[in-house]
Amino acid sequence: FGAVVGAAFGLPRFDPKAAFPRPTGANLFALAWHQDAFIAVGSNGDILRLSSGDPAQAAVSASFGGVNFVGVASDGALCVAASLLGEVYTSADGRSWRQAASVPEAQLAGIVAGHLGFVAFGTNGSVLVSDDGQEWRLRATGYAETFRAGCIAGGYYVLVGERGICVRSRDLVT
C-alpha cells in the first residue's frame, strides 16, 4: 500500500514508525487532497496540512477547540471541513479557515465534493448541500438511517449507511 501511495504522490515508502510526526494529539478521521497539499481533520478541532510530501513537515493550519471534525473534501478551488455538530468550515488555500455555516439539526458523519458542489451527510438521513461551500441547505431525504460514507461515481453522488442503505442523486434534488 505505501509504495503505491508513495509513488502516486512522491511520498516515501510507508513506514508505520515514521508516519505523521503527530503535531497534534487529536484523532484524525478524514483526509483530502487540496491543490498542493493533504488536509487532515479530526477531534479537538485540529486541521493539519502536509504539502511537502515529508511527514515531518505536517503542521496544524487551524484549530477550533472543541470542534470534532468528521470529514473534509475539496473541489480543487475550495476545501470544506464538516463537524459532527453540523458546522462547516472553508478554506481556499488550506491554511486560513473560517466557519461558513452551522446547521445544528444535522449531525454529520462526512462530506464529499463533486461536479455540482458539496454534500455533507449524517444521522437520521441528514443531507446538507451547497453549490459553493458557503451557503448550505438541509435536504429532506425521507430516510431515518445514518449515512456513513459517500463518493462521486458515474455522475452520481452516492451515500451508504446503516442497515444497508444506499442512495444516489445526479442533481442533488432527487
- First-residue to last-residue Cα separation: 37 Å
Largest sheet: 4 strands, antiparallel
Structural class: mainly beta
What order do the strands of the largest sheet run in, or round the barrel if closed? 1-2-3-4
Q: Please bin the fraction of helical residues.
A: under 10%
Tally of separate helices: 1
- How many runs of DSSP E, i.e. beta strands? 15
Task: Determine the oligomeric state from the structure.
Answer: single chain
Q: Report the principal-axis shape.
A: globular
In N-to-C order, the SSE pattern is HEEEEEEEEEEEEEEE
Stretches where pLDDT is under 50 for at least 5 consecutive residues are: 1-7
Average of per-residue pLDDT values = 86
Question: How much of the sequence is in beta strands?
Answer: over 45%
C-alpha-based Rg, rounded: 16 Å
Describe the structure.
The protein has one helix and 15 strands. The protein has one helix spanning 2-9; strands at 28-34, 37-42, 46-50, 59-63, 69-74, 79-83, 87-91, 98-102, 108-114, 117-122, 127-130, 137-139, 147-153, 156-161, 166-169. Strand 11 (127-130) and strand 12 form a beta hairpin.
Blueprint of the fold:
Layout: H1 2-9, E1 28-34, E2 37-42, E3 46-50, E4 59-63, E5 69-74, E6 79-83, E7 87-91, E8 98-102, E9 108-114, E10 117-122, E11 127-130, E12 137-139, E13 147-153, E14 156-161, E15 166-169
Antiparallel strand pairs: 1-2, 2-3, 3-4, 5-6, 6-7, 7-8, 9-10, 10-11, 11-12, 13-14, 14-15
